[in-house]
Write a structure and sequence with these properties.
By secondary structure, the protein is an alpha/beta fold. It folds into two domains: 184 residues, D-Maltodextrin-Binding Protein, domain 2; 99 residues, Periplasmic binding protein-like II (D-Maltodextrin-Binding Protein, domain 2). It is 45% helix and 18% strand. The chain is built from eleven helices and ten strands. Strands 1, 2, 3, 4, 5, 6, 7, 8, 9 and 10 form a ten-stranded mixed β-sheet that branches.
Length: 327
């Protein structure tokens, strides 16, 4: 092949690469021209809302477009999730799913959407854990003490929750089952009133979130016994896991993951997944990692899908065993 011919061939090949690249770039530009909404199925101000707003800011930078948070609370996350399940599947309406997403199919008689058929995973954003805390005046100084006290007085100890079916409730039910003890669940309309009663001695223990307990633990108003995660956490390096402290097999995690409506184009899912993955490395998340006890995850959409399937299966057994049903 002559030099001119080689040059013409090289130019043609370069032109082909450019042509192949342009549609992707054009698609990304077109995607960024529209507003993307992350629906938070809780009221503003909570942990899910804070994490979602931080993610939205970082994703805006990655996508080169506007990403906003829209709060649609109610019915244990069902209202917001149903809204997204029925939204236009173009990648611009997402839901920040949490622990409730995995347990609602088992807790509720019927949902207005099918978690398997109507939603597709985008990315697992983060995982977290709860902390087992007691009143320092209770005389309970370890998880072994808690188990001994519960066995000494069956049904004599109360644990507080944020409401039926919440992570604080089911974490307690899992503990009862694996530790073979009896505790009475006392349901509250949030962490604040439950904490008030724990500090006052009305209830004796809580399997509460990091955000609700950290400041009280540091102030000496609550005593932390263990973390509910599978491994020890840098946030509380001296605290054993519940499994280490005497309840083998115990793991109870909170998590945050983005889902999109079913039939959302794979190209849009890939674009969003990449944006999330890069966003999770931003310094903006450092404070949340410390304050909320988060472990940022990321990875392919399948990581979220497989994780949630495992959580649904695991918690459905706990819910069935405890005979918990919500209307």
């Amino acid at each position: 092949m002559s030099v001119p011919a080689i040059s013409r061939f090289a130019c043609a090949l370069l032109g082909l690469f450019v042509c192949l690249a342009v549609p992707g770039a054009a698609a990304a530009d077109d995607f960024a021209s529209q507003v993307t909404r992350i629906v938070v199925p809780f009221a503003p101000g909570g942990g899910t809302d804070i994490i979602s707003r931080t993610l939205a800011q970082e994703m805006s930078k990655q996508l080169g477009g506007t990403v906003i948070v829209e709060n649609k609370p109610g019915a244990g996350t069902i209202i917001g999730t149903d809204y997204v399940a029925k939204a236009l599947p173009d990648g611009h309406t997402l839901v920040m799913a949490t622990f409730a997403h995995a347990v609602n199919p088992s807790l509720r008689g019927k949902l207005p959407y099918d978690t398997e058929k109507d939603l597709v995973p985008v990315a697992l954003v983060a995982r977290s854990f709860n902390i087992v805390v007691v009143n320092p005046k209770s005389g309970i100084n370890s998880l072994a003490d808690l188990i001994a006290a519960a066995k000494a007085k069956p049904d004599g100890l109360n644990y507080g929750t944020f409401g039926p079916g919440t992570s604080a409730h089911l974490a307690g039910e899992l503990f009862k089952s694996l530790a073979q003890v009896k505790l009475t669940a006392v349901h509250y309309k949030g962490s604040a009133p439950a904490m008030t009663d724990l500090l006052g001695g009305t209830i004796q223990v809580m399997f509460t979130t990091v955000a609700s307990a950290t400041s009280l633990i540091k102030a000496g108003k609550l005593k932390a016994l263990a973390v509910t995660s599978a491994k020890r956490t840098p946030a509380f390096p001296d605290l054993p896991t519940v499994a280490e402290a005497g309840v083998p097999g115990y793991v109870a995690e909170s998590w945050y993951g983005l889902f999109a409506p079913a039939k959302t184009p794979p190209a849009a899912i890939a674009l969003l997944n990449k944006a999330v993955d890069k966003s999770l490395h931003a310094p903006a998340f450092d404070k949340l990692v410390a304050n909320e006890g988060l472990t940022m995850v990321g990875g392919a959409p399948e990581v979220l899908g497989e994780y949630v399937h495992g959580e649904e299966s695991r918690w459905s057994k706990v819910i069935k065993s405890a005979n918990i049903k919500l209307r």
